Amino acid sequence: MFAIPGQSPVTVTPAAAAQIARLMAKRDAAGLRIGVKKGGCAGMEYTMDYVAEAEVHDEVVEVDGGARVLIAPMAQMFLFGTEIDYETSLLESGFRFRNPNVVDACGCGESIKFDEKLGNDA
């Protein structure tokens, strides 16, 4: 829907690709579906679900190593240009979104606010 021909809407680091592929195999999933929804103290939250198949209007991003990221239609304009990484530290591990469209985040890091030009109130 919001794709630029020849350009992936998101990039996935090798660490994230390996973790996505590992979890896809464990869950027998067709891919990791990423979306956004209203919620949290900053206004919006990312959603992530392993799914059995892509939905009709999902943007499908194939990644080396067998990982597949599916972007929900409503999320495509919010995620364009995002880098998805997987980080492990002494106390926690998880996916990290480096999203140029985010203008603010809550203190706990669970919710975000997008540039209002993207239709944040949609």
Automatic annotation (TrEMBL):
<dbReference type="InterPro" id="IPR000361">
    <property type="entry name" value="ATAP_core_dom"/>
</dbReference>
<dbReference type="Pfam" id="PF01521">
    <property type="entry name" value="Fe-S_biosyn"/>
</dbReference>
<dbReference type="InterPro" id="IPR035903">
    <property type="entry name" value="HesB-like_dom_sf"/>
</dbReference>
<protein>
    <submittedName>
        <fullName>Iron-sulfur cluster assembly protein</fullName>
    </submittedName>
</protein>
<dbReference type="GO" id="GO:0016226">
    <property type="term" value="P:iron-sulfur cluster assembly"/>
</dbReference>
<dbReference type="InterPro" id="IPR050322">
    <property type="entry name" value="Fe-S_cluster_asmbl/transfer"/>
</dbReference>
<dbReference type="InterPro" id="IPR016092">
    <property type="entry name" value="ATAP"/>
</dbReference>
<feature type="domain" description="Core">
    <location>
        <begin position="10"/>
        <end position="110"/>
    </location>
</feature>
<dbReference type="GO" id="GO:0051537">
    <property type="term" value="F:2 iron, 2 sulfur cluster binding"/>
</dbReference>
<dbReference type="GO" id="GO:0005737">
    <property type="term" value="C:cytoplasm"/>
</dbReference>
<comment type="similarity">
    <text>Belongs to the HesB/IscA family.</text>
</comment>
